[in-house]
Amino acid sequence: MQDSNNNNILIICRNLQSVRRLLRFNPQAHSRYILASDDPKVHEAAKECSWIDKICWIEQMESFYNVADGVIHLTEAVNQWLKSLADDRHGFPEELLFFTRHVEGGMTTQRIQDLLLLIRSYHFLLNTYKITSVMVISQPGMGWEDDVLIETARSRDVDVQVIGHHSFGVLIKKVGSFLKIYARVAYYAVNDIRFNLHNRLKSKKTERVDKEIVFQLCSSAYKHIENIIPLMKALRHRGYNPVALCWHSNGRYTKEPGADQVRREGLQAEELEKWCSFSDMWRSIIGVFWTWKKAKRKKSEFLTHKDLDYLSVPLGVLLWTSVRFFIVVELPQSYRLRQALKKYFKNHDPLAIKLWGATALKEGYFAWKSLNFKQRPLIFHYAVGVYMIDWPYQMLDNSVDLLFVAGEINKKIVEKTKFVPLGKIEICGQAKYEGIDDFKKKYNVTQSRSYLKIPSSFSMYILFDSSAVLRGFMSSREQAVTLNALLKFASTHPSVALIVKPHPSHHVGIVEDMIRHGKDLKNVFLINKNMLPYHALNSADVLITKFSTLGMEAMLFDCSVICCVLNGKQRFNIYEGAADYIDRIENLEALLLKLVTDNNFRCKWHDEHIQKQKDFLARYFCEMEEPPSVYQAKILDRYLATSR
Predict the structure, then answer these.
(1) In terms of Cα–Cα distance, which of 462, 399, 429, 459 is closest to 599?
(2) Which pLDDT belongs to residue 1?
(3) Which residues have C-beta within 8 Å of that of residue 235, sequence separation ≥ 6?
């Protein structure tokens, strides 16, 4: 318990450069200083400041489960206000004006989740250390997080001092962030025009064909390509005409967009951009100006909205950047996509369609709204990964007529989340993983290590799935603490290889900095984030992850799995007894030490893991005599025959 008469000062220091200011700082007498940072290097450097009484972390490791109800409530309040901006004649229709309920990155609903988790973390700091004043050392790129802290402190009548707020680096970053929004608008528009012109010159619009089955594809990432290719081939074998309906203009430039990857497999693909006319593009630009003008007139109403409040912190001003991003960046893209979809389905009557994310994602929702409901196609769905967690943002999706799941475990989870009615679920395995056996036949362990340029002389190979920082899923603290422990372990055990594989959506930053900080470590290998994980999994003895579906793939490679769930949420223990679950970093260090120093323990531990994994996989995947994609095609054939 802290002395209530003390002046307890919280210092927010987010990077090493900020520590230099502390070295020149003159502390006040009779004041107690608590330094908070989510960078382990700052924790080490700050120890030189003897006047700092306590060093702690900024953000807690809470998950989306802690704030989901609040996020849903606030999203509904924001959407209610957005709908007031509707204008069918000059702006955009009401059906485009909403934040999706899906939370997995981005500047809209994810931003609301970020906001609530940050407020809870700041409240924890203020309460735990009985803070009387806050000193924030500004860092470029963290202005929004600082603004959330300032508003939270003000709601508690806690004084805040901001140092470096007007520094050149911070100002440049603010201007850059502002310009980046409009640069993205221009980039998307140019992308639309580029795809439109290229595809019009390269190929004509596809004509209506019999027995067409559509797979909506809005990404060029290979994991999404491999998710549809097996079933498309199986359907073609049964006499259907599968086509990948692609939308690429909202993605980054790639030399081989998804449509070309599908065609490389000998399958048909259609770019939606060619269905978007130049008048649609012009109309989308005019709509942005009209809607943004109307939004600015109603800004004060949004900033003072009575429902935009959390733990007595007013949220309107903190969410205004998300509103601007939505109107300026997302709305014109949504309009162009919707127009293209309407024109495509006016000329095509597919028998069945796999929507992008069912109707939980806006791309799938717009496709569903654009279908010809007089000749409504069968809507089927299956996930890119696995259904393993109870998803608090899930809603009953009445659009789905048929849901494919891998086995009984998946079916029970879907039944619990009430994603679709019980009679619409079919167990059929997971077609996505059909290629793993072929991969293992083509590459042995030594060949995979050679491919990654990792020597085969190490005694043990640890693969760390560093994931991507996303509040509610993987906190920056969890990522940093785990990687820091693994780097220290690698430094004291040079016979162990540490392979680090970030998620494709990972932003270059602290992971790379921490690895560079230990540049003398010859046994640490950073893998390209965009590379498929198969070579890394084939090379590893142990995978360390949180709750990624990479754990499932690791089991298919006979790789033991350790799940670091440092926030202690047992709802993330998704692999039952097939993985070791770690809730304290000290326990991970102790387990790794035991595995390296005790060969008998390691052999016994590994053998037990492999057996438990086999038992789990046998329950997770249903047994069948043919590949899952072939079985899925048969089920679709049966459903279509019944509907016809």
Answers:
(1) 459
(2) 42
(3) 213, 242, 633, 636
Q: Which long-range contacts (CB under 8 A, 24 or more apart) does 606-610 make?
A: 606/541, 606/560, 609/560, 609/561, 609/578, 609/579, 609/580, 610/558, 610/560
- H helix or E strand, kind and range, residue 318: helix 316-325
Please report the DSSP string for 329-344 in residue order: IIHHHHHHHHHHHHHH
Q: Are 495 and 536 in contact (CB under 8 A)?
A: no
Best CA proximity match to 24, nearest among 171, 161, 163, 167:
163
Is the predicted pLDDT of residue 489 greater than 70, yes or no?
yes
Query: What is the share, in percent, of the chain residues with pLDDT greater than 70?
Result: 90
Of 387 and 147, the structure prediction assigns the larger pLDDT to 147
Q: Which tokens hold the place of 185?
A: 């608008």
How confident is the prediction for the chain on average, in pLDDT? 90
- Rounded distance between C-alpha atoms, residue 234 and residue 251, angstroms: 28
Residue 326 is classified by DSSP as I
**Residue 525 contacts residue 577 (beta carbons within 8 Å):** no
Judge residue 348's burial from the number of C-beta atoms within 10 Å of its C-beta, 0-12 exposed, 13-18 middle, 19 or more buried.
buried
> Which residues lie closer than 8 Å to 325 by C-beta, 6 or more apart?
107, 108, 181
Q: Is the pLDDT of residue 85 over 80?
A: yes
Residue 605: both structure tokens together: 């531990």
Q: How far apart are CA 465 and CA 462, in angstroms?
A: 10
Interval 182-232: pLDDT, tens: 666 666 667 666 666 665 666 566 667 889 999 999 998 888 898 999 999
Q: Given pLDDT bands bounded at 50, 70 and 90, which one contains residue 372?
A: confident
Give one DSSP letter per residue of 218-272, joined into a string: ----HHHHTTTHHHHHHHHHTT-EEEEEE--TTS---SS-HHHHHHHTT-EEEEG
At 235, which amino acid appears? L
Place of tokens 């949180």: 546
Residue 400, both tokens: 């789905």
Which pLDDT does position 65 carry in this prediction?
93
pLDDT reading at 355 higher than 70: yes
- CATH superfamily label, 7-60+108-171: Glycogen Phosphorylase B; (3.40.50.2000)
CATH topology of domain 439-620: Rossmann fold (3.40.50)
DSSP 566: T
The winner for highest mean pLDDT among 254-258, 495-499, 564-568 is 495-499
Query: Residue 19: is its pLDDT beyond 50?
Result: yes
Equal fold, 7-60+108-171 vs 439-620: yes
So what's the pLDDT on residue 604? Answer: 96
Radius of gyration of the chain (CA): 26
* Phi, psi angles (nearest 5°) of residue 161: -115, 125
Q: Are 356 and 400 within 8 A, CB to CB?
A: no
In the structure encoding, which two tokens stand for residue 511, read together? 């992971």
Question: 510-517 and 476-492 are packed helices; what angle lies between their axes, rounded to 10 degrees?
Answer: 20
What is the torsional sign of CA 163, 169, 175, 180? Answer: negative
Domain coordinates of the chain in residue numbers? 7-60+108-171, 439-620
